[in-house]
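pinned: reference chain
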Amino acid sequence: MLRMMHEMKGFKLAATDDEFGKVSDFLFDDQHWTIRYMVADTGRWLPGRKVLISPVSLDQSDWAAKTFSVKLTREQIEQAPGLDTDAPVSREYEILYSRSFGIPYYWGYMYPWGTGSAPWDLMEQAQPLVEPPAEPKPEDAARVLRSIDEVRKYHILASDGEIGHVDDFVMDDETWAIRYLVVDTRNWLPGRKVLISPGWARSIDWAHGMVNVTMSRDAIKSSPEFDPSVPISRDYEEQLHDLYGWPVYWL
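pinned: its structure tokens
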């Protein structure tokens, strides 16, 4: 099911033995556009620490109760490798994190989660943790996980001019893939929001907060309006993909 990501901020996080915090942000990779970690706000429990939770560690999600159940104890979470609040998440940290929780590495494959498209595929592939190379590859060293909070408000630049800014994200709750950016066009089409897939971006200027898309402003103007209060149907998605002439992701 497709879900709006801002609605998941503030969800409670429950370990196997007690609650330990709330979701404050999400980190995704800009290769597969897949959520890799939830950032937990642990309040006074672990002050000054950034606690990351991988979707691989999730059990059942109670969407009605706004709670993510985590298959870890509070002690395991507390003993995870520390990461300063303002520090970036490096590949070296992810290696330590994976070792700490016994999670195989997700990177180095053509699929988002090892040999599959969903988090549980990573655990079911039964691949042992491998020793990292003595020196990280250049592409790994330059790799950065992006914050959902950071990318919100990025400007959207069509082929013939600016059209608005990123207002939210739409995520697939089975694969944790970001399927769409919600674009607020209030400065150009007052009160109107539209969806754009990350795959339709020509380039992204991370340094200046700009997403360059392949479509013209008129093409986006003719796209079906998006109402965040209405669940996204497959018919709506088909209409959207047909309009832009892009293949669907579900086949």
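why pinned: The first strand starts at residue 2 and ends at 4. The helical segments are 74-78, 91-101, 119-124, 138-141, 148-151, 217-221, 234-244.
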